Amino acid sequence: MRRYSHSEPAPAMLPGQQRKDWATIKTLLPYLWAYKGRVLLALAFLVGAKLANVGVPLVLKHLVDYLTLGPNQARALLVMPVGLLLAYGLLRLSTTLFTELREFVFAKVTQRAVRTIALKVFRHLHSLSLRFHLNRQTGGMTRDIERGTRSVSSLVSYTLFSILPTLIEISLVIGYLVLQYDIWFSVITAGALVTYIAFTVVVTEWRTHFRRSMNEFDSKANSKAIDSLINYETVKYFSNEELEARRYDQGLQSYESAAIKSQTSLSLLNTGQSLIIAAAVTLILWRATSGVIDGSMSLGDLVLVNAFMIQLYIPLNFLGVIYREIKQSLADMERLFSLLEQEREVDDAPHAMPLAISGATVRFEHVDFFYEKNRQILFDVDFTIAAGTTTAVVGHSGSGKSTLARLLFRFYDIEAGRITIDGQELRDITQGSLRQAIGIVPQDTVLFNDTIEYNIGYGKPGATKEEIIAAARAASIHDFIVSLPEGYETMVGERGLKLSGGEKQRVAIARTLLKNPAILIFDEATSALDSRSEQAIQAQLKEIAKDRTTLVIAHRLSTIADAAQILVMDHGRIVERGTHAGLLAAQGVYAQMWARQQARKTPGTSEVDSSEPDADMADPSTAVA
Questions:
Q1: pLDDT at 574
Q2: Is the same domain home to 485 and 588?
Q3: DSSP-derived secondary structure for 574-617
Q4: Which one of 475, 494, 510 terminates a domain?
Q5: Left if phi > 0, otherwise alpha if psi is -120 to 50, otherwise beta: which for 566?
Q6: Bridge-based pairing state of the strands 416-421 and 424-425
Q7: What SS3 class is residue 51?
Q8: 192-214 per-position pLDDT tens digit
Q9: Does residue 350 register a pLDDT over 90?
Q10: What is the model's pLDDT at position 420?
């Protein structure tokens, strides 16, 4: 007997765990570099825009100098200003033109990266095990995905279209100042930049944990809100609207507190940045004014330096905001990429092959399984479902019946033993082909918030209307559907709440019939139906199960009396097995359960009273003969 151990899913990233910023950027870069031609062309347009932008003050300087010439140079005024004015206008136009061309070329890169990452995360989440999704709050996870994908666009925009252009412009300006003017101009400019950047980085790093706290509290509040709204009826049943409002408000209060601290610290950041910029501009203008007075600089030079400072002031004034947004974007992307890092607990083996059906014999061979290391669910479970036959499983709640269906779908890997279909072990075949061969009608049917036609057609994407109607007829729901004002186009509501339990169950049966699988699982498939509907559907289920391997997890024993094999489970073990007649004759646990159900039959009906759904599945050790 071989023993396997499945790997535990990687724990979700805690708020205090910071993914390295460079690691996040490194993860993002391949998605952008897939369009390297567009990236390089956009960068060329970016440089062109900045060269044109720096050229504007230079033209302005020469224009002012020419306009301040003496009378003996009057003749030059007839020609030069016209050329300078045209150059000024052309450079202004070039700045805008190159900027828009950059946006046009790079738009596809950004949006395709966002789309690719979002789709990859979506696919990856579907590939993760059921254990991961049971431990994860869907509301918080969807908010993480939403913020993360939005931050991809923000990060690209801020880094390539704000930080990089600003650095290019600063380099050009400082280079010109070094070559043309007193060294103090470049010293003051460079000193102000270093001071500004250092102050911005230090304060923003300090502020980042406020943003992380805001994200965490926002996700928690959103999770509580979605969980409460999904369980709307339960809230109403217990009149707990105020309780839910208080729970939601607790999250909002925590978010409010973190947001106030974030805004207060932002005011400190903005004030410090403005002080540094104001001091630098004042010193630069003082040096320029002194140069004009002593004759070492012209009036055009004063205008040029002032224009340079104005052009640098605007992006520098936003540099702190941009840096903060970049840090916030990186923080938002942490959770998005951490989802991609979640390891698949159940994954296809490298050698996995598609399932080849030749009868669909299902075999559980000495299977052990537990959801948690200290809580074993199945103990040495061993049985065979012969091809084309029906095996029923009964037992009290928690005995492990539904776990058999989850293992057959390979939502989890077993700890010991083997599960095979036609001799092929589940771990040696692809999950896609395995699940394509199995159809299930679960006890708790959840539908998509779409039309009835869509929900039935989900069993076979691309099915024709005639095929969907045929499946609905087989599930005895067609007449009900056509009686609705909108027929098959009727919306079922969130999780199918606009339909009754029995109607949802019949939609689920029709959906499985349309899939036409080789193996069928009925997990208490008729538990939500009344006696009349159940009798009608049971006949249909027996008919479609004739040539299929079928596993029936049952509550009402009368529905599985003609099964080829009945397994009785108790605390994860098979305690009895046989046919209905054989088990009754054995006078064991099954016989006691049958007797209790027969005693609870309502007079004048052929089915048991289901007001106590678990009563007949009580611990067999407490049964009375």
A1: 92
A2: no
A3: EEEEE-HHHHHHHTSHHHHHHHHHHHTBPTT-SSB-TTSTTGGG
A4: 510
A5: beta
A6: antiparallel
A7: helix
A8: 888 888 888 788 778 777 777 88
A9: no
A10: 94
